[in-house]
Amino acid sequence: MRRIFQSFIRTPRFNLSRHSLTRSLETSARMSVPSEPKNQHFSVGADGKTYVDLEFVEEALGMPAKDGYGWARFESGDKIGPGECYTVLRKLGWGGYSSTWLARDNKTTRYVAVKALTGHYSSLFRQMPHWEPYSFHLLTGDTPTDCSPHCIKLLDEFVMSGIGSAGQHYCLVTPLYGGDLLEMQSKYKQDHGRFPPLLAKRALLHVLRGIAYAHSCGVIHTDIKLNNVFFDTPMTTSEIDLWLDDNPPQRHPPEMSTDGVMRTYVSQTLPMIPLDDAFRGTFVLGDFGAAIGASMQTNHLISVPPHRAPEVYLGAKWGEKVDIWSFGTIVFELVVGERLFQYQYNKVLDLDETENILFKMICLTGGNNFRAEQLNVSPLAAVYFDEECILKKNPMLVDYSFEMMIGRRNFLSEEEVALLAKFLRRCLQLDPLNRPSAKELLEDPWFDGVD
Questions:
Q1: Would you list which residues are annotated within the binding site?
Q2: Which one Pfam family would you cite for this protein (predicted)?
């Protein structure tokens, strides 16, 4: 009898580069062979049984869908889709519930991206309150040309059988993009010392247009962050052909899994576009995997902690204004170059991770506490706040004004600092009722002169 254990329990909305799995073995000799992969670490548990931790450099290929995994096991050259209309060429990247592949549309010869959901996630689709294909259909309209240029387009979709224990894969076909905004930020900061403020403003304007369009279609994204913002590539088909010839697909060393020895493909993204092209490029809101219909009344947990709205932390029902809060956090992150909120224990004030974030939220609003009307409809408010709407541990408030946090870096004029600080305050209102809509924010003076 075998059991599989997760030695680290992690949310699938984090894009992790490494993770571990632990499983009980009937005998250690089953895997202890001279050519065994290097990702096995044996130990003896308190129950006297032999266990092995399996570490994976990227996705845990060969682990079963029934246990929460089931990544697609594509090979370069595989023909997939209806009538084998797509040829898989390269792995672009992976996440907690999918992997994305560069493919050629055999009918049009254009390049596309195929996002293959894990067998586990594919099996849960119809049971989940958020459904990516449904969101795509709302966003796309009758034809892909109806969609906003700032929301990712769905070109095709299909279901295919996976290999081994992977289960079935729901596959979504989209245009091929050049990369994500987090990659771009990292590259340009490395090359230029700081992400160009004017480029940041252009990218953020495009993202806000995408949010406004999604909301107009009745879709709440719920997972707005820099690595869910894509940009187009100026590379032509012939240029991509040459790049593929010069950069053949690479594999990681062998790794053991439930299905046997696997060799996972290395994620190989397209080359980063030059800065001049970025200023002319189009930025697109992507990855609607956690999206939900605006008409649904829910309070389930969404977003990664640094971008999570206060009403979500407090367990209240939430709506489209969670996207406005998350957007405000990425505005600060992209322009200033650091995250506004860190989900971590505050040793000095003895505040746990959630208390610490709520504390900083209050400080950023000039010390204004949450209103009683908001806390009264928040099931978790009593955990953190007293009857006077003050944090139970009553930490001394600190002045975290946006003007101070932005201005101390000395890269924007006083006028720009003031405009940005005012814009951030509009996005980051504690009460969602006080946050403007995405459409209203598009008229903010901070975007004047930007397209």
A1: 115
A2: Pkinase
